[in-house]
Design goal:
- 33% of the residues lie in helices and 33% in strands.
- By secondary structure, it is an alpha+beta fold.
- Strand 7 and strand 8 form a beta hairpin.
- The chain starts with a strand and ends with a strand.
Length: 169
């Protein structure tokens, strides 16, 4: 995959991105909202990047793509994660140093039509904890519609969540 926008490149992982994946994962927002996506060491990040690269070949797992600035700086990722019954969920993270600049919204807007066509789907979910205001803003700015707000399972814990749906059309 290679998607280019005015400021970003969404592409496939390469092993030389492991250090950036490690560093980008360490911010407090990621620890709070996506603790299973915190990679405390470069070695753990290398293992994860290797796994994610294998999914491009075998399709067995989440489809995760790094978000790069046009100068090649790795600032985060966007992903499509398979759930039950053929349903997919979008996910994303932009490292704290790069938030507040619209990068995540730009990446999601570019990613949605490409990944949905690749997967042959017309709908995709977005789920986040209600306290993650930045993620909610991204979902709403990119055309997702809220379907639910209340208690639900998130990261294997019962938390207050929002569930959104995007329908291509």
């Amino acid at each position: 995959m290679q998607i280019e926008t005015e400021r970003l490149i969404i592409t496939e992982f390469t092993m030389d991105m492991a250090e950036a994946v490690h560093l980008n994962s360490l911010d407090d927002d990621n620890r709070n909202f996506n603790p299973d996506e915190v990679f405390e060491t470069i070695e753990i990040a290398q293992d994860t990047v290797g796994f994610l690269m294998s999914v491009y070949e075998n399709g067995d797992g989440p489809l995760v793509y790094p978000i790069l600035l046009n100068d090649g700086t790795n600032i985060g990722y966007v992903q499509a994660v398979p759930m039950d019954d053929g349903i997919w969920q979008i996910g994303y993270h932009v490292a704290k140093a790069y938030t507040g600049k619209g990068y995540c919204t730009e990446a999601v807007n570019a990613f949605l039509p490409v990944i949905m066509k690749q997967l042959g789907i017309s709908e995709i979910l977005g789920i986040c904890v209600t306290e993650n205001e930045a993620s909610i803003r991204v979902l709403e700015k990119t055309g997702f519609v809220k379907e639910f707000e209340g208690l639900g399972i998130y990261q294997d814990e019962e938390r207050s969540i929002c569930k959104y749906r995007y329908t291509a059309g």
